[in-house]
Design brief:
The protein is mainly β and 71 residues long. 6% of the residues lie in helices and 28% in strands.
Length: 71
């Protein structure tokens, strides 16, 4: 019999936030990440799922300043 494991907590990206204010660490839970006004999500995924094997799906994103990316 397999016991579901809690996944390690996700950290919101610098200049970012969790859509629900936090993320549950129980299998089957989904976590949404976004960036504050003036930043955009790059190099990762905005939604992650907590899996029964104790891992999260996807890659953690980065929040980049929109001003920095404008040329």
């Amino acid at each position: 019999w397999i016991v579901d494991e809690l996944v390690p907590p996700l950290d919101a990206p610098e200049n970012g936030f969790f859509f629900a204010g936090s993320c549950k660490q129980t299998p089957g839970s989904f976590c949404g990440l976004g960036c504050f006004n003036g930043y955009r999500l790059i190099d990762g995924d905005s939604f992650h799922e907590c899996l029964a094997n104790g891992t999260w799906t996807g890659r953690l994103p980065t929040c980049q300043s929109k001003e920095r990316s404008a040329h």
